[in-house]
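Q: Hi! First time doing this. I have a protein sequence and I read that you can turn it into a structure. Is that right? Here it is:
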Amino acid sequence: MKSRQERLEKRKKSIRKKINGTAEKPRLRVYRSGKHIYVQAVDDLAGQTLVSASTCDKEVRGMVKGYTGNMEAAKTVGRVLAERLKQKGVTAAVFDRGGYLFHGRVKALADAARENGVAF
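A: Yes, that's right. Below is the predicted 3D structure, encoded as structure tokens:
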């Protein structure tokens, strides 16, 4: 029987086979821990991170009250990421959920980014 981590790694690889980010349409890579949520806009062709946002950022910390591992914090991270992408001139992206189910914090982050002008 495979461990939880091994199953997650298998799902990540399966997703990464199908999606790829470019400078015009970067891959939004999500990582979720118990206390924080992180997202990066990655240009896979150049191997660069264009922008990133997380609940560890000072800007986001000021917006989030209390616990950072909840849906409100994820929505805030999605809004901040969308603003940073707009500053770079990016309006479209490919969403990489990182092997996590598309619900809860991951979905809240994606919806907030969509509401603030990033098309998936």
